[in-house]
Amino acid sequence: MHSDKQLRSEPRQEPDDSYCQPVTRRLDEVRAHPSYSRLGLAVSASQLSALVALEAWASEEPIAITSDGLIIDGYARVERARILGRATILCIEYDRTEEEALRDLLQRHLGSSRLNAFCRILLAEELKPWFKRKALANQKAGGEVKGSSKLMEAGRIDVTAKIAEAADVSVGNISKVKQLLRLAIPELVQALRRGEISIHKAWLLSKVPSANQRDELALPQCQRRIKKDMRALASRHGSKSVPTVPDASNLIRQLSELDSRKPGSFRIFVSNARGKAVCVTKDLFQEFEQVPKRELIPKC
Fold it and tell me: Is the pTM of this model over 0.85?
């Protein structure tokens, strides 16, 4: 493995931040980093809400871009500016290559909730060709014998370590994510993208059959939604108790009829939530649309 001193000897390894300047750019001149777009990453609704809640000076902080208009930091601010119908945005422009911009993007998101560990790994993997070129350049600069299997293995380890460093994760998590992308069902990968499950827990879950992955994933999601809905109901009704199903026997009858018509069309989970309650998902609720409105349980 090569030392950081050797890596710094390469040109442009450490971009010079002294060359940066404030500029005002049209919104149509700034764009997402190609890797960010390629991986389908986007600003979440919660991130936009958090930005709106900030003081005006914080939400208007300049975004960071490259001289080519690639966004390094400030994706939520750009999205908010577009929603508000603005034509321009204040920027700090840096002299960066595409690879350097991606490395900076990762660096600026370390320790924040804007990009979770799984998404950071996906982005850092995009730097693999760049790290490989640097590892090869280091081998040549050091006069090492070309083609040596030991040197190739050392280069591979060095590249994996650099990817882990860029994503601020362990090398073990890099390996787990690679396995997840091969074995996990799409729903599990999406849960990882949203940060609803840890890499380690998802990795353990990916080892079971696909049907079991769905069931194991659905339970915690259902529990989270129950808690969220209960909080919303409690807030809406103040000190009043949460409305209960007016006709439980009618609900049981409809569930029984649905199960007889479409066996296995719904699953039943046990939640640790307090109180005695039955949670019905929207998808299941839609199955009752043909029943007169007065017989349906109220929507929350």
Answer: no
Any idea which of 6-10, 45-49, 84-88, 99-103 has the lowest mean pLDDT?
A: 6-10
The CA distance from 70 to 64, in Å, is 9
110, amino acid identity:
L
Residue type at position 105: L
* Six token digits for residue 298: 């109220």
Local structure of 90: helix, strand or coil: strand
- What torsion do the CA atoms of 17, 18, 24, 26 make, to the nearest 10 degrees? -40
Can you give 167-219 as a three-state secondary structure string? HCCCHHHHHHHHHHHHHCCHHHHHHHHCCCCCHHHHHHHCCCCHHHHHHHHHH
Listed in sequence order, the DSSP H helices in 92-148 are: 98-108, 117-125, 128-141
Closest by CA to 195, choosing from 212, 170, 178, 220, is: 220
Q: Roughly what angle, to the nearest 10 degrees, separates helices 171-183 and 186-193?
A: 140
Q: How does pLDDT run across 66-82, given as a tens digit for each residue?
A: 999 999 999 999 998 99
- Separation between Cα atoms, residue 159 and residue 131, nearest integer Å: 6
> Can you tell me the distance from the alpha carbon of 6 to that of 86, in angstroms, rounded to the nearest whole number?
46
